[in-house]
Structure to design on (321 residues):
């Protein structure tokens, strides 16, 4: 899998990343550590060598699972982690990074990201200048190789960029969730900032595995995802059915089709989670799917049957609104 440069940094990321929110177990159901470890290892063996995590994913558990999976081949993988809004003060950023390094059993992160804008989830508001100051210091020390932000609007991204080089933005982005295209993407393209799309398969909705009356298990955060609610959900299911013939023509899955569409967008990488080795290996094969201009136009029209009806709030979940 041909790697791509992250922003203007010296870091190279694969176009598809292994997402590990589920590895933390918190807010997910049916996740087994042993299966997750196998999934991460399988992803790397299949060519997905970039792994995205965060300190908040199971309070470090996701990072620890990654270490168990691939710390013996650290020289072959790239690590991206994130600092949570409760740790945005200068000293707390430094401490959070050190914890992540310990959890991941490494002495550097290829990318360290601000997970959410300051004040999110009722956290204390900390000036972006202070948080960026800590990140710049970590970069000087060699503990991190590049700096990114996640869930930032264009205005927030522009403000952060006043205090240091931002090499990537991590927004929710998929065929069914395209807010970033109208907000931050033009700025990212203009300033050579990579986009790491999370929830790239709309949290599984684009896999085509959900039926019209699906009920999530207790504790599964996807029950609060706006795409799984009411008319949004019914429109999404209809759109999925319309995407099936395109996937079939490429002899690929709907998930692979969705990832192929994303990684063809300007400056965009796709983060894809996996519960087991089979899913991880299948995700990697999306890199081989090449879409025609006519197919892009078809998929755009199908996608907008869902996205045109969404509100302007770029946050996917009602619990984070």
């Amino acid at each position: 899998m041909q790697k791509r440069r992250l922003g203007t940094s010296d870091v190279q990321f694969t176009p598809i990343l292994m997402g590990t929110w589920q590895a933390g177990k918190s807010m997910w159901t049916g996740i087994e550590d042993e299966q997750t470890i196998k999934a991460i290892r399988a992803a790397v063996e299949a060519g997905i060598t970039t792994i995205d995590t965060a300190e908040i994913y199971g309070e470090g558990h996701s990072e620890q699972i990654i270490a168990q999976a691939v710390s013996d081949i650290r020289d072959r993988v790239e690590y991206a982690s994130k600092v949570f809004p409760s740790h945005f003060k200068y000293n707390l950023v430094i401490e959070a990074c050190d914890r992540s390094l310990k959890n991941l059993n490494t002495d550097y992160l290829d990318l360290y990201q601000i997970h959410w804008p300051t004040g999110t989830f009722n956290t204390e508001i900390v000036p972006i200048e202070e948080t960026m100051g800590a990140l710049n210091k970590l970069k000087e020390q060699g503990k991190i190789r590049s700096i990114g932000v996640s869930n930032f609007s264009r205005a927030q991204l522009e403000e952060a960029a006043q205090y240091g080089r931002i090499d990537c933005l991590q927004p929710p982005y998929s065929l069914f969730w395209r807010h970033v295209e109208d907000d931050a993407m033009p700025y990212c393209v203009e300033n050579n900032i990579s986009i790491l799309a999370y929830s790239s398969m709309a949290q599984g909705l684009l896999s085509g595995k959900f039926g019209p009356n699906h009920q999530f298990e207790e504790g599964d955060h996807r029950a609060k995802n706006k795409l799984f609610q009411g008319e949004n959900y019914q429109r999404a299911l209809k759109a999925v059915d319309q995407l099936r013939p395109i996937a079939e023509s490429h002899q690929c899955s709907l998930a692979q089709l969705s990832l192929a569409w994303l990684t063809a967008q300007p400056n965009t990488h796709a983060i894809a989670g996996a519960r087991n080795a089979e899913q991880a290996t299948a995700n990697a094969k999306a890199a081989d799917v090449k879409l025609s201009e006519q197919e892009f136009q078809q998929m755009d029209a199908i996608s907008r049957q869902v996205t045109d009806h969404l509100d302007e709030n770029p946050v996917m979940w009602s619990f984070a609104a």
Q: What stands out?
A: The chain is about 40% helix and 10% strand. The chain has one domain: 4-204+254-291.
